[in-house]
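#struct-queue
[09:14] JT: dropping the first one here, sequence first, then the structure tokens:
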Amino acid sequence: MTASRLASLAGLLADDTRAAFCLALLDGRAWTAGELARHAGVAPATATEHLHRLVKGGLLTEYRQGRHRYVRLAGPGAAQLLEELTAHLDPAPVAARTLRAVTVDKALTRARTCYDHLAGRLGVALADALTRDGLLTQEAGFALTPDGVTWFTDKLGADLRNPSRRPLVRGCVDWTERREHLAGAAGAALCRTLLDREWITRIGTSRAVRITPPGAQALTGLLGPDEAWQPASSG
């Protein structure tokens, strides 16, 4: 029974279109079927069929608002599964690509959302800075120190109340850096605070984010200087 269920789960991602849908939804936002169809370059009817399988298989959830049907990842566990599977992939061979594709890849590598927390060089650098300052320990898995809890609540003003059963903090393997960034409820609170304060902003409809000048100044004041939170000159 377990082997059959595992095979069924693996089969959900054994299709380029369904995999493209899931990777797009790692931005943590809800998408309509039409938006996902355009993203993957498939017909609306094809998208609907694939989304039905993903919802039935438990990787996605759906809800309706007015006339629109939205889907999103089923939760942090689904996001963690996708990110960790992606981290196991060998780097893709270099091929001739457009300037736009190269720019998007660089932006995603520099800083992006991983469901509801931060990833890329920015995410890893934040975890390193928190660890260096004694706010986070990585000795036996990720854990906030007492000073770390105080920093999140008093210095950052983040809400660490965690009504769900997800861990307060955990490490999430970063598929570009091949190291762990900060996930869990604290990672989500950090990402949400930076977005709310406009210290980072989203780049178009992708998962990529960029540091704003006020964000670079604020993070330097909180955690010291780091190249990872200096605004990029382009992209």
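[09:21] JT: and here's the second one, same format:
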Amino acid sequence: MRTARISKATVARRELVSVTGEPIAVPDEGALVHLQFRRFAGCPVCELHLRSIVKRHDEIVRANVREVVLFHSTVEELLPYAVDLPFPFIADPTKDLYAEFGVESGVRALLDPRVWRAIFYGVVLSLWAVVRGKKPLPPKPRGGRVGLPADFLIAPDGRVIASHYGAHAYDQWSVDELLALARDAR
């Protein structure tokens, strides 16, 4: 398992609003929160990762982890991609939360050879969904295409149990890594 940076930071209690209007408490008094910072609405690489989360979402819930996913896109841009997903999408088009959590952008997001396979596979799957009418073409990213992902596991009291800042666009916790971190937090 990759080493996650352990932080002594505490996240102040706040209420975010999902793209569907649902209030989302972070931290959550009853569960760990996996706060994911992704890139933009329709990002093929992000969608590839989110598929792995969806496939194992029941395991994640049983581990008492609540998924919350942020994108640097508007509500309108995100809505078509949030349909039928079992976790909330949060729009942060001004990247205020990205800045607060130290989530960066950089050309290495796309130039790192470790991401090329995910880009290819993600683009093929996304284009197939567009051709079949399942998804719209992604809008032009307001926050740019070179965002880097980040993951935070936040305890009910607001302590950041673990964090991971991606080195490239497909560098995030796997479901197995997330579940191991949740297990260690108990």
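[09:30] RK: nice, looked through the second one.
[09:31] RK: The radius of gyration is 15 Å.
[09:31] JT: good to know. Residues 126 and 151 are 23 Å apart (CA to CA).
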